């Protein structure tokens, strides 16, 4: 918090009761430190993810949940294919991955409809 304050970010330390007042759905019982930035934004991760999924489906994307990813195909530094527990999709693939200590771990994938083109 000191770093944020040194950069001019208005942040204040809260105790669990104050934090619960601001965010009643959260559990702060074992929090070592609770900071509050009144000017910061907040996004509900579930609502953000489902909104992205809904928008993707409207554009023809097929989303597979609870499917194990067994391998990724790479071309030019980009993921071009995904081998899954349901097989390997024949249509173009967009995959989301994160890197932990140099190990790429797929976290999501979408098989694109033939009419959807790369918008990046």
Task: Provide a descriptive summary of the structure in words.
The chain is an alpha+beta fold and 120 residues long. The chain has two domains: 2-36, no CATH class; 45-111, no CATH class. Helices cover 22% and strands 32% of the residues. The protein has three helices and seven strands; from the N terminus they run αβαβαβββββ. It has helices at residues 2-6, 16-22, 45-58, and strands at 12-14, 34-36, 62-63, 69-75, 78-84, 93-100, 103-111. It has a three-stranded antiparallel β-sheet with strand order 3-7-6, covered by helices on one side. It has a two-stranded antiparallel sheet with strand order 1-2. It has a two-stranded antiparallel ribbon with strand order 4-5. A hairpin with a 2-residue loop joins strand 6 and strand 7. It is elongated. The two termini are 36 Å apart. 3% of the residues are buried. Residues 112-120 have low confidence and may be disordered.
Q: What are the main properties of this structure?
A:
22% helix; 120 residues; alpha+beta; single chain; 7 strands; disordered C terminus
């Amino acid at each position: 918090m000191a770093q944020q304050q040194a950069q001019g970010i208005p942040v204040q330390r809260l105790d669990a009761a104050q934090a619960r007042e601001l965010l009643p759905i959260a559990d702060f019982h074992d929090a070592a430190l609770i900071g509050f930035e009144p000017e910061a934004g907040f996004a509900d991760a579930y609502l953000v993810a489902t909104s992205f999924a809904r928008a993707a489906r409207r554009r023809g994307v097929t989303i597979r949940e609870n499917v194990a990813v067994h391998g990724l195909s790479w071309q030019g530094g980009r993921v071009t294919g995904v081998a899954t527990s349901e097989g390997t999709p024949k249509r173009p693939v967009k995959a989301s991955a994160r890197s932990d200590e140099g190990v790429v771990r797929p976290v999501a994938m979408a098989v694109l409809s033939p009419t959807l083109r790369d918008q990046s």
